[in-house]
Amino acid sequence: MKKPAIEQFFATLQAANPHPRSELEYSSDFELLAAVLLSAQATDVGVNKATRVLFAKANTPQALLDMGLEQLEEHIKTIGLYRTKAKNLLKTCEILVREHGGQVPNDREALEALPGVGRKTANVVLNIAFGEPTLAVDTHVFRVANRTGLAPGKTPLEVEKKLLKQVPPAYLQHAHHWLILHGRYVCKASTPKCNACAVASLCRFKLSHSPKP
User: Which DSSP category does 79 fall into?
Assistant: First the structure.
C-alpha cells in the first residue's frame, strides 16, 4: 500500500472513531496490565466479566498478593489458562512490589521482565498507560496488516516493524486500536465484511473473495 493510500486509510478510520479505546475495562495502570495479561487467548468480554468482581476486591499488586493464589484462581477460573495466568500475575505482583514500589514501570525492558508479559502486552501498556506510539500486533492487527497490504509480514514482529515505518506519525498513537477494532468487527478472519468496509477501496483483498452478505 502506497503512502497516499495509507494516509487515507487511517484518516477514514479516524473519522469513524476519533477517540478509540481498549475494550478491556480498567481504572489504573495496574488494572490495565493485569487485564492484558489475563486476556491472552481469551476474549475481552470474558476478561471483563471476571475482573469486574476481582478488581472490586483487589486492584493493587499488594492486594492481590494478600488474596493469594487459591482465591485469585477462583476469581479468574472462567478465563482460559487461568492457573498459569494466576501464577504469573502473582509473580508479577511480587516483582512490582519488590522492585517498582507497587507501580507499573514505564520501561519496555522492565515490563517484559515480568512473568506472563511479552512484547505484545508490553506494547499495549506502553501505548495506553503511558501514551507511547507503540503497536501491539495481535491476531486482528496481524490479519488486517497482511490482508489489506498495509504492512505484510510473516511474523508479528515483522508486521510491527513495518507498521511503525508505514503509519503516518499523526495516526500512530491510536493505530493499534483502530486496527484491532477493524479486525474484530469488520475485517473478520473467516467472513470479512468487505461490502460494509469503509476502506475497501484501498485494500488489496478483492471484494469477490468475500462471502456474500
Answer: S
Residue 194 has what DSSP assignment? Answer: G
Q: Where exactly does CATH 1.10.340.30 map onto the chain?
A: 29-128
The architecture of the domain spanning 29-128 is Orthogonal Bundle (1.10)
**In the chain, what is the greatest distance between 2 CA atoms, to the nearest angstrom?**
56
pLDDT of 44 reads 92
Q: Rounded to two decimals, what is the model's pTM?
A: 0.87
* Number of DSSP helices (H) and strands (E) in the chain, helices first: 11, 0
Closest CA to 165 of 136, 135, 142, 141: 135
pLDDT digits (tens, 9 = 90+) for 131-185: 999 999 999 999 999 999 999 999 999 999 999 999 999 999 999 999 999 999 9
107 is catalytic: no
Q: Cα(198)–Cα(61) distance, rounded to whole angstroms?
A: 42
Pick the catalytic residue: 120, 161, 165, 188?
A: 120
Amino acid residing at 59: N
pLDDT of res. 115: 95
Closest by CA to 159, choosing from 142, 174, 181, 147, is 142
Catalytic residue, chosen from 3, 44, 57, 138, is: 138
Average pLDDT over residues 29-37: 96
Region 3-20+135-209: CATH code: 1.10.1670.10
Q: Is 29 a catalytic residue?
A: no
What pLDDT score was predicted for residue 211?
40
